[in-house]
Structure formats: structure tokens, C-alpha cells
Amino acid sequence: MPKITAPTVAEHRASQRAALVRAGEQLLQEAGLTGVTPGSVSERAGMARSSFYDYFPSKDDLLVAIAIDAFERWDADMEHTLDGVEHGLPELRAFVDATMRMTADGRHAIAGSLREANLSPTRFEDLMTLHHALMRPVTRVLADLGVPTSRTTVSLVQGVLGAGVRLVTHGIDPQVAADDVYAVLTRGILPA
């Protein structure tokens, strides 16, 4: 029986699971999808390969856990960034700036890697639901500005943000991209 390293079994299991998620994320960033295997993740986490299956039935389940963890961190950081920012255009500006800065810091790379994963349609939809939830601040800003928050409008805003993310990923200065994204959004979404 393995020795537990926490006050309770539940805390030990949570710690072990978190170690596997961290190891998987590191390997995903370093080597891409092909580098993430039950064996490599377990080794990186300092665990036996068989332990992987105590926490994740498959590699896909680990990939989804990595994505959920990354989305939750991104969301928490964004909410912290926007806390206390004046509603309306200042909040939109802060959101755009933070998105481009976080992308430049490599925080969006996980999403790019996971897009290449051959996840089941259900698991992929789960991730897309989480990704769309990250647009809550934009929906709030649009509502504050009196702009309809239809699915189409939010998707268009997300498309402009996505274009900025791709530019930053390809080496454009994040502040230049943020300035351009903000300009396109404010010229294109304000009511007449």
C-alpha cells in the first residue's frame, strides 16, 4: 500500500491528481500532444504508470482536466484584472489588453495544443462550453454599452479577439495587437 503524503486520503488523492494535471500541462507545452502519454505524465509526476489510471481513465480525460484547470486559472486572472475597472469601454479595454498580454505570456498555448487533440465530440463540446464561458466579461461589457448580446454579436467579438490572439502567437507585439483589436471592436460595436 502506497504511503499517503497528506493528512487525509482525500487530500492525498487530490494532491496526486493535481500533480498529474501539472505534469501533463508541462509536457503538453514542451512536447505537444505526442509528449503526453500515461507513462510520461506519471514519470514527470513522480508516480508509477499504473497510478495514472487511478485518476484518469484515459489520456483524453487528462487533457480535459488540463483544459479545465487552464480555463479556471485564465478566468480567475481575468476577473481579478477587471475587478474595480470602470464598466463599459474601460472594462472592454482592460479585457482586450489582458487577453493579449496573457497570450504573449504563453497562457493560450494550451488551447492551441488541445485543438489538435482528437477528443470525442462530447468532450470537445465540454471544452467549447468552458471557452465560451470565458466571454462573460465581454457579454457584460456589451450589455453595459447597450449593445445586443446575441450569440452572433458575441461570436463576432470573439472572432476579433481570436484574430488578435493569433497575431500575438505569431509574434506581433501584444500591445499593438490589443490597440488594433480594441479599435476594431469599438468602431464596429457601438450603436449609431
TrEMBL record:
<dbReference type="InterPro" id="IPR001647">
    <property type="entry name" value="HTH_TetR"/>
</dbReference>
<dbReference type="InterPro" id="IPR009057">
    <property type="entry name" value="Homeodomain-like_sf"/>
</dbReference>
<dbReference type="Pfam" id="PF00440">
    <property type="entry name" value="TetR_N"/>
</dbReference>
<dbReference type="InterPro" id="IPR050109">
    <property type="entry name" value="HTH-type_TetR-like_transc_reg"/>
</dbReference>
<feature type="domain" description="HTH tetR-type">
    <location>
        <begin position="14"/>
        <end position="74"/>
    </location>
</feature>
<keyword id="KW-0238">DNA-binding</keyword>
<feature type="DNA-binding region" description="H-T-H motif">
    <location>
        <begin position="37"/>
        <end position="56"/>
    </location>
</feature>
<protein>
    <submittedName>
        <fullName>TetR/AcrR family transcriptional regulator</fullName>
    </submittedName>
</protein>
